[in-house]
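Revision sheet: structure tokens.
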Amino acid sequence: MTTQVEAPTTFRWDRLTYSSALGYCLLVAGLSVGVVLSELRDEFGISGVVAALHGSTFGIGLLFAGVFGVQLVDRVGRRQVLTISAACLAGGVVLFCIGPSWPITLLGTAFSGAGGALLVMVMPGLISDHHGEHRAAAFAAVNGAPGIAGVAFSLVIGGALSAGWSWRPPYLILTGVFTLALVVVAHPVALPDGERHGAFSLRHFFDRDVLVPWAHIVNAVLAEFTVGIWAVTYLREVGHAGAGLAPILASVFGVMMFATRLALPVLLRWWGEATISYSFVVIGAGAAVMCFAPNLAGKTVGLVIVGFGGAPLYPLTVNRFYQRSG
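Predicted:
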């Protein structure tokens, strides 16, 4: 039996909101492949190009699910799509962790990418329908929680590598914990029904009120996902951090994302409608520091700046998309 959830009159953490946050935490498990790409190169003796394909196959999975995902939602409904999403994410991580060769690990990241795309496609509408006019605060809160998951993956795996242990058991255990928590919390929750007026069509995609906020979302996701996946590899190979130290230092990105999203109401009071623009400027400044800083400490500071600037972008750009596109 499911528990019917009424739309809150003010933003609050309820069971559906916790479930949404845990779903994004599971997405982080799929994105955390970047923490161990250097180890994968050493274990399988693969080139940097093949290692980088693990991020590309995640993207291919995103594209595949993005093309067919809307039809899938129409066919089976939100709940079944989110179930498929969680299964793909968890199953993809398992393949990635236990795969005996790089083609299997690539297949795992493709599964995770498809699951992640389905989640990212369905979850914003779900949160918007549930929280209504309070969706901006809900987006910030729900997307802040995965920062803790990112920190957990970086610290736990970094600690394991520093101790000379394999990265696989902690990666699998953390993914299992988030999967189990999601199942337990989300199972009794009834999801709000999405409303569709007419058949699915891309006819209005190039309308300015749709295209511009959509482009902002794409930029926000690229800024967040790219840094999240490649921060550890960058600090290790460009900043010359050790195998165990690089993931630990990269955790500052998740810490800043989490802390800044918690403080987002304060930033909105300071910067107002210009918050998105300022955030892109701050990200650019942080990226410049990462690129041109002469040492590991400076590059880590740049990563902190990128985390601070990037945190407001996804929740605010998604909220603006819903405001402008209706």
